[in-house]
Amino acid sequence: MNTNIKAVEQLDILIKRYPQLETIKEDIKQAYDILEHCYSLGGKLLIAGNGGSTADSEHIVGELMKGFKKQRKLDCEHRTKLVNVNSELGAILADNLQGALPAIALDGHLALTTAYMNDCEPMLCFAQQVNGFGNYNDVFLGISTSGNSRNILYASVTAKAKGMKVIGLTGAKDSKLSKLADVCIKAPETDTYMIQELHLPIYHCLCLMLEERYFGGF
To answer: Cβ distance 64 to 210 under 8 Å?
Structure first.
């Protein structure tokens, strides 16, 4: 797959700022290619993690579902449709809504998750949501500093069974997730907090690359 030139520039900027990520540059590019293909087919991204990685999941959703560096203004056709539905409300919507890349963090559905954990198997909570939300051509991003978090592994197996691609975001060590994922971005650190410090610029780069690809005209 030919990666968008502007997207590649964002990856080069990342490596310039964080030279230690040179060793995983190709993995980041491969993850981007998977995400680009997903969105080109109208798919979505499902994300899950534990603790600090839960916060990262929500952070990624925020960067994808609204403007990150670009305003992502709606095109004329979309704006016209909104105004045609209701001229007053549609005009406000047309001026303020932004283009979005569909992404769902699997940590935030409290009624569902607590019901499932009470009635079923708590460790399968993310897997149940992948089973319900996920479709063929969607992508699951599992964030685990160890790469061995069981709830992330269960969700990954569920995703693969549904024909989804799986991206892992882990630390440097080989793990069960790195063996299961279609691509695993292994931040070159072994201490949890140091791994997490590198996860942020990695996923920021992926979000910037996708924004350049889909909203670069604005």
So the answer is: yes
- CB–CB of 186/20 below 8 Å? no
Q: What region, left, alpha or beta, does residue 137 occupy, with left being phi > 0 and alpha being psi -120 to 50 degrees?
A: left
- Residue by residue, what is the 3-state secondary structure of 174-191? CCHHHHHCCEEEECCCCC
> Is the separation of the CB atoms in 175 and 192 below 8 Å?
no
**Tokens 């939300």 — which residue?**
133
Q: What is the pLDDT of residues 66-125, one digit of tens each?
A: 999 999 999 999 999 999 999 999 999 999 999 999 999 999 899 999 999 999 999 999
Full set of structural domains in the chain with CATH = 5-65+100-215 (3.40.50.10490), 70-99 (no CATH)
The 10s digit of each residue's pLDDT in 132-165 is 999 999 999 999 999 999 999 999 999 999 999 9
